[in-house]
Amino acid sequence: MRATSRRKESLERFDWHTEVEMVEADLIEPADLDALFQDVDVAFYLVHSMGGKDIDFEEQERRTAENVAGAADRAGVKQMVYLSGLHPRDRALEDLSKHMRSRERVAQILLNSDTPSLILRAATLIGSGSASFEMIRHLTERLPIMTAPQWITNQIEPLAIRDTLHYLVSAADLDEPVNQACDIGCGETYEFADLLRIYADVRGLKRRVHSIPLNLPMDRLSGFWISLVTPVPFQLTFPLAQSMAEDAVTEEHSIRDIIPDPPGGLIDYRRAVELALAAEGDRGVPTSWDRSWTRFGDTEEEEGVPAWASHPTDPEWAGKTLYEDVRTETTDLTAAQVWPIIEGLGGPNGWYSAPLLWRLRGIADRLIGGPGLGGRRDPRTLKAGDRLDWWRVTEVTPPNRLVLTAEMKVDGNAWLVFEVEDKEEGGSTYTQRALFEPKGLQGYLYWWVVSPFHSVIFPFMRRNILKAARDGVDSVI
């Protein structure tokens, strides 16, 4: 397996980089491509130029496709596979959106080359990292009422990432080369508004979606609004909003003659959303705190969620929103010296900062049906599963790590993580993280309201925990 990027470092951040041959190449430079395609049997063309600043992405994609097709022809590649976009086949090329027009031109360049090319035309892909799915996710999470242009009533046939990968992987093992464009979809059509409503239903959110009863040219305004409300950049939301002005459903099913349906059949949109959310970890605590990717729970296959679903290959705006308050300090104390204070948090020992604010938050939680400040099982030791005020001990690894999951009444999931790592030269690094994953608009509002209090509570907590640890060491001395 060979993978390419303009910068090899871009590939090295992925878990799988040691399992592939990495080649540095710029597809816009023909001189870079001969070595890239040498001894290649099947090439997957999964490249687009949307999102780049100050470039004509149509022209960029045309030149790139011509370069790739020429290099593949010279190298004698047996099969090219291109993931393209789904659009009405009876629409003239010049009448398509800029996004879809570029996709179709790339497809035609590949089909007219000497290398057999299988063009897979898909609409919205459902899974973390898909720009269209991230738009659906963040619009639904953040807006209780959505008023949108009439394009939200257009027909669309989405496809789960799982099934997309089935087609791509199967294309590497065809009985004979194929030079053909095929539509791929889940087999069921929806209005775009339905995609928003079903996502909301899966997440347990009450959402209302309305279309503006006027046929107005609102693609630029829609793209701007979506980029404002969601983390997806305008360079992507604008061309995608343009493309949504057209239906995107399969019009032919020749793919079945080339690649059979996946085992168990194609999955519908609701199940695709359920799998996408499960892969992100409705079942676990974040195991990485890097904002550039989201990885929750373990990587074992569970309830139809494959291990690859949690790999950190998504753009930084993909995945659920995760807010953090991180406090770090280097100290000459060892982890073993700091740990007794961390393990003794809560209950009668308190939280080493703003006790009045903690008590008021506990009272408020009780009033709305939460556990409040419920104490702890043992004044000195903790074990996984213990209740600790309104927290539950998720992980305890003396003397380095304590993870607490919130059980208070709040619209979202919250964690409090304490880590102490010894340094080779002596002393240790203390890190304290408060994390919050909002659910719905109320969750976002909650974080914005409490953030000013965090700027008081958490710095004092860090300082006072280390001070208490030092006082304990000094008293022993």
TrEMBL record:
Residues 2-126 form the NAD(P)-binding domain. InterPro entries: DUF2867, NAD(P)-bd_dom, NAD(P)-bd_dom_sf. Gene3D superfamilies: NAD(P)-binding Rossmann-like Domain. SUPFAM superfamilies: Bet v1-like, NAD(P)-binding Rossmann-fold domains. This is NAD(P)-binding domain-containing protein. The lineage of its organism: Bacteria, Bacillati, Actinomycetota, Actinomycetes, Mycobacteriales.
